[in-house]
Structure formats: structure tokens, C-alpha cells
């Protein structure tokens, strides 16, 4: 994305945020929205800091992800203010003076010490909705402390699901980067690299260090693909290398991509055919990302479609309906179909019933689903079906009534490959969905 694109789209983004913030403040009965960027956290009994993570409520306004102890102040009807910490420090690199397409839209106060921010914040803390972590408190006895009013958070978080054109452009760019990494990682896999080596090849191609990525890369060879959040990185490849599951994203201006691809070393073998079948099912699911569709239904439909694949490959001996009705499909597809995506890889408010609170429950028997809302234009969701042959779940299945519905020889044939997941980032629109991930893969081809 060019900086002209961002510059062209940013004013309308800021206008949308300002309008949302004005209503949120009204809901909570406050005059000002105040958002600290967050602080550094330290390891216990040590002077080592953890990687800094910007407050998502802060980076929604400005694409700053390396600026702890800065503050955003918004008062309806006034220009937003940014209190920007630029310390005098010879131990660390200090942030550059603010620059870029967004700065002209703010009144900017540069401070040299974190405590100096206080003089630029509204006088009366009780009139402020202050959104952040307790540790950001300033003033005597922490008088200016985050209060995180629920009505304000409910409103902002609910509406954050609907991305502005600026945000969609940022997420497309994050996808573009991640796709570059996926291509490099596949090359490294085919060349025989270890998980650690593939991870390094990925970071190099994306141009991001591990701490800059939106989540910890899942780089899994062979049976490791069955461990849903496998974040070890073996220094040596297994022998032989059969399969590769990569769940890895990228960040751009504070926005995330979240992409998974699965590969078979033998492109002519049965595991490749299994991946292809799941890929076809996944594409059909992505096509259902349409306004008015209940995401819970998409998740349940995914169980049916994946059960069809299990049946087609002779892994289950029953029909797809029975595999879903008995709960058998959950032994192979044990996670949710996906989630909202944006400033956070698992975006907030996935269960929000309205912008004034309330919860839409998960379907019975599906505890790991992260999104239960009805889809609407502007939402970006992941679609990430998977089928796995994990040791724990297969052991539990073997000991259950459903064991009789499984061809265990077929399970044993697939076990050494771990599992398959395919994950795309999809925009819901007024019409056909836009698959950011597929479009960026196609553009790179
Ligand atoms: N990478 C985490 C997820 O797919 O939800
Ligand atoms: Mn993922
Ligand atoms: Mn995901």
C-alpha cells in the first residue's frame, strides 16, 4: 500500500472513530475519551521488559505500535490531541518526531517524561472515560487512572467489528506481507529446513521480527500439525519430512493478518488429496461470508462439510449427518471455524449481542467458537476449518462410544501427517465476499 492510499483513506477513518467515540461518551455520560498507549511490563525480580504491546484502543486512532506512555485525548467537537512521549534517553533509541499521513489531524504535545503527560490531559478525571491498563495511571496516588466504563467499551468494541476502508487497506497490506512469508516458508519446507529454519525464512520474507508479528508463528512439521497451538520450533527436521502446517500472520500499522496453509511433501500422495478436499470445502465456506449470515450456522455447516471429507477418505464409516449428530466431527475438528480480525488477531466483541452489551451464546457442544454474531458489511473474519489426528483426541475417541464409527486403520494412515488447516481472511460486503488472502496469493503468483 502506498502512503498516498493511507493518506487518502485516513481522514474518513478518523471521522468514523470520532463519531463512534462521541456516541460512546454519551452512553457512558463522559465528556472526554482518554486512551493511554500502554506501558512496558517487567519480568518478576528482573529489569528485563516484556515485548511492548500497544493498547488496541490507542492504535485504532494512530498507527503507532512502539510508543509506550503516550496518550490520545478526544473531546467531541474538538481536534483530537496526541500526547507523545519522546524521552531524552541515551540507553535506548527514542521514537522519532511524529510524522506521516496522520499527524496533521492531531494537536500534538511532545513530552520528555511519562509523568509530564498529565498536564496535557483533561483537568477533571471524573469526566473522562479512560481506556487502558491499570498500570498506565498517572498523578498523585494514581488519581488519573483508567476506569474502562463498560457502556463506552461495549459501544466501541461492538462497532470495531465494522472496518473502515482505511482499515481494510491496512489488513490487505498485512495479508500481502504474510503471503510473501508463506511462499518463502513453503520453499524452505521443500528444501528440507527445520521448523526453526522455516520460521526464520518466514520472518525474513515478511520483514518482521517475531515480536512484531500479530501472534506466535505455528510452524509444524509432521505430527506437530495436530497440536493446535504448537509453538515449539525444533532445530532439526524430522526424518522423513511428510507434511507442513504453517499458521503465521503479519502486522501493518497495528492491523493483523492470520493465515494458515498446509502442505504435503509428496504432491501426488493421498495426504495432498486430503488437503485439496479441505481446501475446496474451505473455499465454499468463504463464499458464505455474506451479510445476514449467522456465523454460528457457518460453524455448524463446516462440521457437516468436514464430516463429508472424513467420510470420503474412509476415516469415518458413518454419514456426515451422523458424524455431526454424535459429536464425532468434534474429535477431528476441535476448534471454532474462525473469529473477527483487525487490531487484534482475535478481535474483541465476537459474542456481542448489541452495542449496549449482552452476549450471544455459543452453540451447545462448541465451547471454542470465538464468533457468534451475524455477519454484516465491513466485518473481517477468518475462515479456518481443519481436520487433525491428535494423540489426545484420538485416545479419547477410541475410548468413547463413537469409536465404532471410525476406521482406525485409516486414522493410523493419516496420523503421521498430523493434520490440516486452511485459513483465509475474508471481508463481508453488500455482495460477494472479498477474500484478502486468496487475492494476495494470486497477486504474488
Ligand atoms: N493463529 C491463531 C488463530 O488462527 O486463531
Ligand atoms: Mn491462524
Ligand atoms: Mn485464526
From TrEMBL:
Mn(2+) 1 binds at residues 258, 339, 384, 423. The keyword Plastid does not apply. It catalyses: Xaa-L-Pro dipeptide + H2O = an L-alpha-amino acid + L-proline. Binds 2 manganese ions per subunit. InterPro entries: Creatin/AminoP/Spt16_N, Creatinase/aminopeptidase-like, PepQ_N, Pept_M24, Peptidase_M24B_aminopep-P_CS, X-Pro_dipept-like, X_Pro_dipept. The keyword Chloroplast does not apply. Keywords: Dipeptidase, Hydrolase, Manganese, Metal-binding, Metalloprotease, Protease. Its cofactor is Mn(2+). Residues 170-430 form the Peptidase M24 domain. Mn(2+) 2 binds at residues 247, 258, 423. It is an enzyme of class 3 (hydrolase). Belongs to the peptidase M24B family. Bacterial-type prolidase subfamily. HAMAP family: X_Pro_dipeptid (MF_01279). This is Xaa-Pro dipeptidase.
Amino acid at each position: 500500500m502506498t502512503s498516498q492510499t493511507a493518506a487518502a483513506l485516513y481522514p474518513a477513518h478518523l471521522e468514523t472513530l470520532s463519531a463512534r467515540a462521541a456516541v460512546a461518551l454519551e452512553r457512558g455520560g463522559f465528556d472526554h475519551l482518554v486512551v493511554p498507549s500502554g506501558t512496558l511490563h517487567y519480568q518478576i525480580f528482573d529489569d528485563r521488559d516484556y515485548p511492548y504491546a500497544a493498547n488496541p484502543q490507542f492504535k485504532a486512532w494512530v498507527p503507532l505500535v512502539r510508543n509506550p506512555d503516550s496518550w490520545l485525548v478526544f473531546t467531541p467537537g474538538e481536534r483530537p490531541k496526541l500526547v507523545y512521549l519522546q524521552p531524552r534517553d541515551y540507553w535506548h533509541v527514542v521514537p522519532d518526531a511524529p510524522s506521516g499521513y496522520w499527524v496533521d489531524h492531531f494537536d500534538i504535545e511532545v513530552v520528555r517524561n511519562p509523568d509530564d503527560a498529565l498536564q496535557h490531559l483533561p483537568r477533571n478525571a471524573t469526566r473522562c472515560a479512560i481506556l487502558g491498563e491499570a498500570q498506565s495511571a498517572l498523578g498523585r496516588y494514581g488519581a488519573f487512572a483508567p476506569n474502562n466504563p463498560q457502556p463506552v467499551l461495549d459501544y466501541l468494541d461492538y462497532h470495531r467489528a465494522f472496518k473502515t476502508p482505511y482499515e481494510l487497506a491496512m489488513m490487505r497490506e498485512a495479508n500481502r506481507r504474510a503471503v510473501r512469508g508463506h511462499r518463502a516458508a513453503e520453499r524452505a519446507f521443500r528444501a528440507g529446513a527445520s521448523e526453526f529454519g522455516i520460521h526464520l525464512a518466514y520472518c525474513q520474507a515478511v520483514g518482521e521480527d517475531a515480536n512484531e508479528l500479530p501472534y506466535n508463528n505455528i510452524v509444524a512439521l509432521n505430527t506437530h500439525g495436530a497440536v493446535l497451538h504448537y509453538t515449539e520450533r525444533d532445530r532439526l527436521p524430522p526424518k522423513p519430512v511428510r507434511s507442513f502446517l504453517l499458521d503465521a500472520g503479519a502486522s501493518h500499522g497495528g492491523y493483523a493478518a492470520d493465515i494458515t496453509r498446509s502442505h504435503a511433501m509428496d504432491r501426488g500422495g493421498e495426504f495432498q488429496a486430503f488437503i485439496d478436499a479441505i481446501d475446496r470445502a474451505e473455499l465454499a465456506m468463504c463464499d458464505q461470508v455474506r451479510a445476514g449470515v449467522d456465523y454460528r450456522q457457518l460453524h455448524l455447516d463446516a462440521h457437516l462439510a468436514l464430516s463429508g471429507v472424513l467420510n470420503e477418505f474412509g476415516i469415518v464409516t458413518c454419514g456426515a449427518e451422523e458424524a455431526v449428530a454424535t459429536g464425532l466431527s468434534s474429535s477431528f475438528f476441535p476448534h471454532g471455524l474462525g473469529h473477527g480480525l483487525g487490531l487484534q488477531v482475535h478481535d474483541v466483541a465476537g459474542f456481542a449481542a448489541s452495542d449496549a452489551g449482552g452476549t450471544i451464546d455459543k452453540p451447545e457442544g462448541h465451547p471454542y467458537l470465538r464468533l457468534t454474531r451475524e455477519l454484516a458489511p465491513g466485518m473481517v473474519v477468518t475462515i479456518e476449518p481443519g481436520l487433525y489426528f491428535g494423540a489426545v483426541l484420538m485416545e479419547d475417541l477410541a475410548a468413547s462410544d463413537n469409536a465404532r464409527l471410525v476406521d482406525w486403520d485409516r486414522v493410523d494412515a493419516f496420523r503421521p501427517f498430523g493434520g490440516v488447516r486452511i485459513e483465509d481472511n475474508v471481508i463481508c460486503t453488500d455482495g460477494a465476499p472479498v477474500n484478502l488472502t486468496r487475492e494476495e496469493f494470486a497477486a504474488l503468483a
